[in-house]
Design a protein that fits this description.
The structure is a single chain. The protein is mainly β. The protein contains no helices and 9 strands. The strands form 3 sheets. A 4-stranded antiparallel beta sheet has the order 4-5-6-7, with no helix packed on it. It has a 3-stranded antiparallel beta sheet with strand order 1-2-3, with no helix packed on it. A hairpin with a 2-residue loop joins strand 4 and strand 5.
């Protein structure tokens, strides 16, 4: 199970309800999707500031593989058809 928080993503073992990994991200996570052998997290910033990043986490190592700029306020996220889809709100 993956839980988003301020500047981190927590991986929780549902069998024990314990945190098994804490992964630092660029900023506050907004949405999460799983697919393509990765966990994808949008970084929405804090206090209304746009971050505009998408972070890719490798679940095998619990490490950040990449963080890319996708534009202002990434607000929706999905993995389908072998691709990651990010919906943006450009305020």
């Amino acid at each position: 199970m993956w839980v988003l928080g301020a500047r981190r993503v927590l991986r929780i073992d549902p069998a024990t309800n314990s945190i098994v990994a804490t992964i630092s991200t660029h900023d506050t996570g907004g949405f999460v999707a799983i697919g393509g052998g990765a966990v994808w997290v949008t970084n929405v910033g804090r206090e209304g500031q746009a971050d505009g990043k998408l972070t890719r986490i490798d679940p095998a190592t619990n490490g950040v593989i990449a963080s890319v700029n996708v534009g202002a306020f990434p607000r929706r996220l999905a993995y389908a058809g072998g691709s990651v889809w990010v919906g943006l709100w450009d305020a």
